[in-house]
Design brief:
Layout (H helix, E strand, L loop, with lengths): L1 E2 L2 E2 L3 E6 L2 E7 L13 H11 L6 E5 L2 E5 L1 H20 L10 H4 L4 H18 L1 H22 L8 H14 L2 H10 L8 H8 L3 E4 L5 E2 L8 E8 L2 E7 L6 E6 L7 H15 L11 H22 L6 H15 L5 H6 L3 E6 L9 E4 L3 E5 L1 E2 L2 H15 L9 E6 L4 E6 L9 E6 L7 H6 L5 H12 L3 E6 L5 H9 L7 E6 L6 H6 L3 E6 L15 H10 L4 E4 L6 H10 L7 E6 L3 H11 L4 H4 L4 E9 L6 E11 L13 E8 L4 E4 L1 H4 L3 H10 L3 H25 L7 H22 L4 H27 L1
Parallel strand pairs: 4-5, 11-14, 19-23, 19-24, 20-21, 20-22, 22-23
Antiparallel strand pairs: 1-2, 3-4, 5-6, 6-7, 8-15, 9-10, 10-11, 12-13, 12-18, 13-14, 16-17, 17-18, 24-25, 25-26, 26-27
Helix pairs in contact: 1-2, 2-4, 4-5, 5-6, 9-10, 9-11, 10-11, 15-24, 18-19, 24-26, 25-26
Bound molecules: adenosine-5'-triphosphate (ATP) and magnesium ion.
Length: 762
């Protein structure tokens, strides 16, 4: 393609995410593909920019070099100034001097100088053009000073130079160059300056997503770790409330020969991509694909005489797998289990992705996703789920089988700006009450109290806003169920880590029901109410409902009322207080008041923002008993009895001692267990203290695995056992002795063993 007699690579301008991308095909160009390093390339780009408008520049060969908006703007300004000089033809006769005063003698020389500065040099090396201009001006000024009195010097040429200077200095590139030049004693090689201004991001051309590393120098590094082969950094920005989450995958910083191998491999393997049907088995065959890719890479290397080590070949094969059978760049985020959510908002490509980090809250990432990648993600999701996703079915909601993640995709017309995704990453191991104590989600006493209710087969609902930790808390409560009990878990999305809990000895049966969000008509799954009826027929078991949202509530409450539900019933429900749970269950879900009374306890979780802090912290804010003697409105009839209430000033969930006397639940438990109020509370306190001891030991010895379910459950079992033994031997329990004996066992057995494991691991 020729522009103004110059040969430049073929180019097009494509609109992506509301930005105009200038794509230049540099594959057949003999010059370097870099605005910073190659003058000819810079010249090509400037010439193209005189023809088209663009927000971003992408130079493509086996890899792509991307110039961000600011950089593109700097180049476009130079191109525009160059064009202006040409249009005004500032090197024309009338701009070179005044013939009457000084004659034409110097015109030739001046013409050459100005053409060279404002035309030739400018379009290859604008900074050098500017430096030349300054030199020319200095020379001219000296001449002027010498000839001033003789009256032989006209100021026309000097004016032309001044005008050129003014125009150049109006561009950001020259302004920034001036700033640096003014600090230096010597005029540097201009290449250095271009490298500073036009450091571009490089990526393989088959990856769409761009990474932004803006303003890095202003950021304060908070954390840094590896996720698989990629570096993750979390930063604090001086002026932004949210944290920044940057990933740095190896495929964005490889040497050229590896990019070559990578794109060749990608081309070759595209031909043996698996068919649609086998997509669902991809997760299992990932290793297989990686091996296939390794041999392809080896072939390509030997054909092209490129020498790569074994590790390098493995690394490249993993990258190829990520972008063929994997989830692309998202896979890196999905593998970071410190994240709880990933949001890809529409219109895709306009803003960076957002993530929610379990420690740093909501963070802006450095990843700009693209429409093409989104469509390929959608086809992958369609194939894996076997469900439609189109204008008639704009919601697709399902679990990514290999990643413990649930994804919801919404499309047009529901999302008018196009496809958007929300990923929720499930924790692979269940939360435990000791972990919650450690995270200050609840105090030890509340943990003891909830554990006591589980032990005494209370019916509990955990409520809170979205993401407040309801499901996590309920999962931790399941771990408090005695391991010999049978547990049935019913969920529409598989969030509770049932396989893991089975592994550590729980007897759990899982039922999966139809998702309420998907609007697909091809669903083969069972509805929640049907599933619940089945669950009730499965016999005497603890019954756990992932989320109570619709008709199944009626079935559940009816069963509870007649005592046909399991011995423990727990569920989560959206709400923000005990009262709102009643309101929702009775008024929205049509459960009669009399049935609602089958609820014993409502636990409320809420994200709290402490004054002045931008981060929110999850807290249990209310543990409330539902009393049984009332008729129409539990609030007005004082039937909602707060056992513990959150005090924000003290950041503490406080026991409401005065209310305890009124508790019907405690009376009921006392009547069937034979325990006095005093004994029940000793038991609760002991349990809380034991859990807290685990937390203290974990922090003292820096041994997080002590609080993981596999160990906390062992510790819990042991506590029960010691208590049982005492009861058998002495006919009653002395809770202090039990705790003492248990701590002794902890120190001499569990802790010792884990410390050994930890040491061996290091
Ligand atoms: N106390 C806590 N501290 C830190 N992170 C937590 C805590 N509780 C839960 N989380 C994390 O917060 C995320 C949301 O938790 P969870 O799914 O339990 O909330 P939820 O209230 O059930 O949400 P939803 O309304 O979507 O059902 C999870 O990734 C979980 O691991
Ligand atoms: Mg939940």
């Amino acid at each position: 393609m020729k522009i103004g007699g110059f040969e430049v690579g073929p180019y097009i301008v494509k609109e992506k995410g509301g930005k105009r991308h200038l794509l230049v095909d540099c594959r057949d160009c003999i010059y370097g593909t870099s605005v910073a390093d190659d003058k000819a390339c810079r010249n090509h780009v400037l010439r193209i920019l005189q023809e088209v408008e663009a927000d971003l520049i992408v130079l493509a060969e086996v890899y792509e070099r991307v110039y961000e908006e600011k950089q593109t703007k700097m180049l476009a300004e130079i191109a525009a100034v160059g064009q202006k000089f040409e249009v005004e033809s500032i090197w024309s006769y009338s701009h070179l001097g005044d013939v009457k005063i000084e004659g034409e003698v110097k015109f030739g020389e001046r013409h050459d100088a100005i053409v060279s500065i404002a035309h030739e040099l400018l379009m290859f090396d604008p900074i050098a053009a500017y430096i030349r201009l300054l030199q020319e001006m200095r020379r001219e000024k000296q001449l002027y000073a010498a000839e001033k009195d003789s009256g032989k010097h006209a100021t026309v040429y000097l004016k032309t130079l001044l005008y050129t200077k003014k125009m150049l200095e109006s561009t950001e590139l020259i302004q920034r160059a001036r700033e640096i030049l003014s600090k230096l004693d010597e005029v540097p090689e201009t290449g250095e300056l271009y490298r500073t201004f036009f450091e571009a991001q490089v990526k393989p051309s088959f990856i769409g997503s761009r990474l932004l590393f803006d303003e890095m120098e202003k950021l304060e590094l908070l954390d840094e770790y590896m996720v698989k082969d990629s570096q993750v950094q979390v930063f604090k920005h001086p002026n932004k409330p949210e944290r920044l989450y940057f990933i740095n995958p190896p495929e964005y910083s490889l040497p050229p020969e590896k990019y070559f191998v990578l794109s060749k491999t990608r081309e070759v393997v595209a031909t043996y991509r698996p068919g649609r049907t086998s997509l669902s088995t991809i997760a299992k065959s990932r290793k297989y694909f990686e091996r296939v890719y390794q041999s392809t890479i080896r072939d390509i290397c030997s054909e092209n005489r490129i020498h790569l080590g074994k590790d390098e070949i493995v690394e490249l094969s993993q990258i190829v797998a990520r972008y063929t059978v994997g989830y692309g760049i998202l896979e890196i985020l999905l593998s970071d289990r410190n994240l709880t959510d990933i949001y890809v908002d529409s219109p895709i490509g306009q803003k960076q992705l957002y993530v929610v980090h379990s420690e740093y809250g909501q963070c802006q990432t450095n990843v700009i996703y693209t429409d093409d990648e989104a469509s390929s993600m959608v086809s992958k999701m369609r194939a894996m789920s076997g469900r439609p996703f189109d204008e008639a079915h704009p919601v697709l909601d399902f679990d990514l089988p290999d990643l413990e993640t649930r994804v919801a995709a919404i499309g047009k017309p529901l999302a008018p700006d196009g496809t958007a995704f929300a990923f929720r990453l499930h924790k692979v191991t269940p939360w435990t009450l000791p972990q919650f104590i450690d995270a200050h989600f609840l105090p030890p006493l509340a943990a003891g109290l909830l554990s006591f209710f589980v032990d005494n087969q209370a019916t509990m609902l955990v409520t809170g806003s979205r993401g407040s930790g309801k499901t996590s808390l309920m999962t931790a409560l399941i771990l408090e169920i005695l391991q010999n009990a049978r547990i049935i878990v019913q969920e529409d999305t598989l969030e509770i880590p049932v396989p893991y809990m089975k592994n550590i000895g729980f007897n759990i049966q899982r039922l999966k029901t139809r998702s309420p969000i998907g609007v697909s008509k091809t669903e083969s799954e069972v509805s929640p109410e049907e599933s619940l009826r089945t669950a009730l027929r499965l016999g005497d078991s603890a019954l756990i409902l992932g989320e109570v949202r619709s008709k199944e509530a009626k079935v559940l409450y009816e069963a509870m009322r007649v005592g046909a539900a399991g011995n423990i019933v727990m569920g989560t429900i959206h709400g923000d207080s005990a009262y709102s749970v009643w309101d929702r269950v009775v008024n929205d879900l049509d459960v009669p008041n009399t049935s609602f009374k089958a609820t014993d306890i409502v636990v409320v979780a809420r994200p709290i923002r402490f004054s002045g802090s931008l981060r929110s912290h999850r807290r249990v804010v209310q543990i409330t008993e539902v009393k049984k003697h009332w008729t129409t409105d539990p609030d007005q009839e004082n039937a909602l009895l707060d056992l513990m209430l959150y005090n924000a000033k003290k950041d503490d969930l406080e026991l409401q001692e005065d209310n305890l006397k009124e508790s019907e639940l405690f009376s009921k438990i006392s009547s069937f267990s034979g325990l006095t109020m005093e004994q029940m509370w000793q038991n609760i306190r002991m349990n809380g203290l034991a859990k807290n001891y685990l937390v203290e030991m974990k922090n003292k010895h820096n041994i997080p695995m002590l609080l993981e379910s596999e160990n906390s459950v062992i510790a819990n079992n042991k506590l029960m056992l010691i208590k049982e033994n005492q009861l058998e031997e002495h006919g009653e329990v002395d809770y202090e002795t039990v705790l003492g004996e248990w701590k002794n066992w902890m120190n001499t057995y569990l802790l010792k063993r884990l410390l050994k494991v930890q040491k061996a691991g290091k």
